[in-house]
């Protein structure tokens, strides 16, 4: 069969050149294209795509199969792709264990290359005659530490997120705020579990790195992590501990839903003085008395601005910056230990370099985010009347509202200026009445000078693995594997009130009206229908009444089409841009 084909190729090995040399080549190939080759086997796929699979541990067999098809125009079976992924996983299991043998060398390299840094490894000896087992590692680089102390306010967001790869456990992080109200990672740790012990260990090391002498001057904000409240009380006594209001709302809204109640909740959370809070609570009680009772079970000092300290000049009620930092770790959380730590270090190093250039583009003395807030307050100051007492007292009036402002004390009775350090609308009225600029009264913690101090210390590069120092400590074994029940989770559990990302193939069920097939009523199904069986005719049972079906169906279809159009618009252009 092959002799009759016009195409032929002959080649032989040339020892001198260390390659094959084509001796005879006759064109004229007329056979049909075949998308399978014998050399494309499980081993070939594993060797060719090992690096890409390691970079993307969540890659599945179908995704790998499609990738081979796109790159080589070859068809491989899904089972072959699955076997290749398993072979890569088994090979990387050995590399995973080697990570812990090298972790001390990596820590020593960081300490030598980046002065004044802290890298602490905690191990535990499970079996007396065997080496210790890895438990935790804490990292805080010297330049980052110094930048935070010199340029940031004494408010820290703390949070934890779970690991997704072979390495099981949690990443704990401490995130500060720079002069432009953006995140500034301070320290992070990989621990076995999130509890009082691990949080206390992390916060004690952070306490030493920041050289804290007056714990009561510090403020922490968190998402109500397990054991964190006890750890903060123990390590930072008398410090302020805020809880993220969005998580408070997530728990509270499970029993009290609706846009109106959500609006009233946030009015309560953002009340800056107690009379304003009482007025908003009264409005909430009027809308839903039980909702007001349940909300009062959450201590207001943890999530309401009216009870926040004003020393740190930060009025935030959410822990968004810690969650922003967690979002930058999405890829890192699937990596082995050292590549994960390296990902965080390199991301921090590049961020500092980027911010050093960014500040040079500021048109004024304050960052864009701060100026946006100030300009919003300037617009809100229009329409207020000002009465001056001849010294430093100003009365700002409009309708039934009246507030007093002191420019020397940089204070307003509404407490917005006191809490944030940015002049509120009432303060701006007094400032303009005095003939001065509002920017002159923005707190110094937001200035370009403080921003430049924060990012004036660069993170030094480190050597690769071949040049790491060899430590003389005993080797560290990997942590004992923990088999969790159920399918391993890759995504976090979302709150009920939290919006799901839009889908291009499925319309969200949010906002749909449930219709009972027994009585035709809306807002329930036949399982919870209060209609007795005797009051419904057999012909009507199990389906909607014929008279209203077409009309309701038309309305529902029209509504769904509108939602589909809206969803498609969101996919084309996000609504926040």
Automatic annotation (TrEMBL):
Biased composition (Basic residues): 484-493, 541-552
Record carries keyword Zinc: yes
Highest taxon of source: Eukaryota
Swiss-Prot/TrEMBL keywords: DNA recombination, DNA-binding, Metal-binding, Transposition, Zinc, Zinc-finger
Record region (Disordered): 477-509, 523-555
GO biological process per UniProt: DNA transposition
Any Pfam family hit: SWIM
Protein name: SWIM-type domain-containing protein
Organism name: Cuscuta europaea
């Amino acid at each position: 069969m092959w002799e009759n084909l016009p195409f032929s190729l002959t080649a032989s090995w040339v020892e001198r050149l260390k390659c094959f040399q084509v001796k005879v080549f006759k064109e004229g190939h007329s056979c049909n294209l075949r998308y399978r080759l014998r050399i494309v086997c499980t081993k070939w796929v594993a060797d060719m795509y090992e690096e890409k699979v390691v970079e993307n541990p969540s890659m599945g067999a179908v995704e790998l199969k499609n990738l081979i098809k796109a790159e080589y125009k070859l068809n491989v079976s899904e089972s072959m792709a699955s076997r290749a992924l398993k072979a890569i996983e088994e090979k990387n299991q050995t590399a995973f264990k080697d990570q812990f043998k090298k972790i001390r060398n990596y820590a020593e390299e960081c300490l030598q290359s980046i002065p004044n840094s802290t890298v602490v490894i905690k191990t535990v000896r499970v079996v007396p005659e065997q080496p210790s087992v890895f438990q935790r590692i804490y990292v805080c680089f010297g330049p980052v530490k110094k930048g935070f102390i010199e340029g940031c306010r004494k408010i820290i967001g703390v949070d934890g997120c779970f690991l997704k790869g072979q390495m099981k456990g949690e990443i704990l992080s401490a995130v500060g705020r720079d002069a432009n109200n953006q995140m500034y990672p301070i320290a992070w740790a990989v621990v076995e579990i999130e509890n009082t012990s691990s949080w206390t260990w992390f916060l004690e090391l952070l306490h030493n790195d920041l050289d804290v002498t007056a714990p009561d001057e510090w403020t922490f904000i968190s998402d109500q992590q397990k054991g964190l409240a006890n750890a903060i009380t123990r390590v930072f006594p008398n410090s302020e501990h805020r809880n993220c209001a969005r998580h408070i709302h997530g728990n509270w809204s499970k029993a009290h839903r609706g846009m109106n109640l959500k609006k009233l909740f946030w009015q309560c959370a953002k009340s800056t003085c107690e009379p304003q809070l009482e007025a908003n609570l009264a409005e909430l009680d009027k809308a839903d008395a039980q909702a007001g009772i349940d909300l009062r079970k959450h201590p207001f000092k943890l999530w309401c601005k009216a009870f926040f300290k004003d020393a740190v000049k930060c009025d935030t009620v959410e822990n968004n910056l810690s969650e922003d930092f967690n979002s930058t770790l999405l890829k890192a959380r699937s990596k082995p230990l050292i590549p994960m730590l390296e990902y965080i270090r390199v991301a921090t190093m590049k961020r500092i370099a980027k911010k050093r250039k960014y500040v040079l583009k500021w048109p004024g003395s304050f960052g864009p985010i701060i100026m946006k807030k100030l300009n919003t307050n300037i617009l809100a100051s229009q329409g207020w009347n000002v009465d001056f007492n001849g010294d430093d007292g100003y009365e700002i009036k409009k309708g039934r509202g009246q507030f007093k402002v002191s420019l020397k004390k940089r204070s307003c009775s509404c407490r917005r200026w006191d809490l944030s350090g940015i002049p509120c609308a009432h303060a701006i009225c007094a400032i303009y009445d005095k003939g001065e600029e509002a920017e002159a009264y923005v707190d110094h913690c937001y200035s370009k000078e403080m921003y430049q101090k924060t990012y004036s210390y660069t993170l030094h590069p480190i050597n690769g693995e071949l040049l790491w120092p060899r430590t003389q400590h005993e080797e560290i074994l990997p942590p004992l594997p923990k088999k969790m029940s159920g399918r391993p989770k890759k995504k976090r559990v979302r709150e009920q009130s939290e919006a799901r990302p839009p889908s291009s193939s499925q319309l969200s069920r949010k906002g749909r009206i449930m219709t009972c097939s027994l009585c035709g009523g809306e807002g329930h199904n036949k399982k919870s229908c209060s209609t007795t069986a005797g009051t419904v005719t057999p012909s009507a049972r199990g389906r909607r009444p014929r008279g209203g079906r077409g009309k309701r169906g038309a309305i529902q279809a029209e509504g769904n089409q509108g939602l589909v159009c809206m969803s498609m618009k969101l996919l084309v252009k996000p609504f926040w841009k």
